[in-house]
Amino acid sequence: MNRFPHFALLSAFILTSIIRSSALAQARPQAGDAIRIPFELVTLPNGLQVILAPDHSTPRVTVDIWYHVGSKNEVSGHTGFAHMFEHVMFTGSAHVPYGVQDRLTEGVGGDNNATTSEDRTNYYDNEPSNYLESALWIEADRMGFLLDKLDKAKFEAQRDIVQNERREAIDNQPYGRAWEIQNAALYPASNPYSWPVVGYISELQQATVEDVKDFFRLYYAPSNASLAIVGDFDPAQAKAWITKYFGDLPGGKPIVRAAITEPLLAADKRLVFEDRVQVPMLFMRWPTVGADSRDDKHALDVLAAILTGSRTARLTKALVYDAQSAASVSSRQSERERVGEFNIMISPRPGHSLTDLEAAADSVIDRLKREGPTQEEMAKAIAGLELGFVSGLEFNLAKANLLLEGLVFHGDAGDFRSEYEHVKSVTAADVKRMANTYLGRHRVVLSVVPLGKSDQAARPATSVKVTVSPDGGHYLMGGN
Fold first, then answer.
1. pLDDT at position 30, please?
2. Which residues have CB under 8 Å from 97's CB, separation 6+?
3. Measured between alpha carbons, how far is 214 from 217 in angstroms, rounded to an integer?
């Protein structure tokens, strides 16, 4: 199963009985509303928040549970716990032996999986509607009784799997370390966004089963979880099952969340990393804003679409088609809960240097800063983002994640309506302001080059060599 981290909600409606429905929190029709996902929010006395979003168009249902914990809840020197626990959760719990979940999902035409990010971990089951109760039973048993069956042998087996995932997807993947190197360069070592979600092998090897149990006890409690049910189901019956399986679980301790501020570089950081690659690649990253900065993040999404969203986008047209100096170019605004980054990646064609490509890209960006985008560019970019937003809603899991993202990160499961309207309301002036505000900041410029070819870096004379520490994990800026 693909349980490697990939890459993207706390309000409460206090109940006086076991479950009491909040006032129906449906997306009510309003002038200009184009997106409506009817839903109801309930909260158990133990703090578990539940979103119920019935949709009877197909006889299938999704159960999606988010725990508000990710790699940013770890501490330096003890990384990788959040992702490792994602794996541990599939080893069986007190009343659900290993393999039962797969038989009750994959065995009946469904699927189950999980993902971990810096900010949250989610577990989901997609199955025929008549298997909803079994999915709720499985998730409740893992939440309440996982540690009853977790022993040293299970823990060490999953730790080995995680270490192999890291080797396969990062350490031995061409350009696989680029993201981590940029994080380590952009964020101070004490900032939890500086380390990778998967952690470092040296620190994973030092982890003990008791360390992981302590992590579970703090973060895997109902009061730190939000559950969404989306699809073909009866809300009244679902509430009864939720009461039955989750109602008696203890709530959990209060969680103190670290204050995290935007990183700002005092000067550009220019780095070069030699890797087992055939072609050099250029990565540029600027610090921006996170999910809690609504206006700026959507304008940055539009900026990325204008730069590389189609073959007529500015960077794509200038480098790939007009000059034919780049084989590919891409950009995106990457946001976490508290911080974000704007990224540009460029792969050269033979005979063209990263130095020249960086200068050419900067020239295109500088022109956009001066002139701003055209109305045609704005219309095309926003239409593309709008289409992607709407088309994703045909899947139950996509809707569940959208509702949970709003609830966990913004305190409102219906936040998708504001998100959607903000995307549509971005103006050319907003995009010009974003380009000047954020792409005017100091940045990290990383060249990943073939072994022994540091001279192929962008501006190699001013680039600092990056090496991997002897323990196989951390990065040394300066090669010592």
1. 40
2. none
3. 5
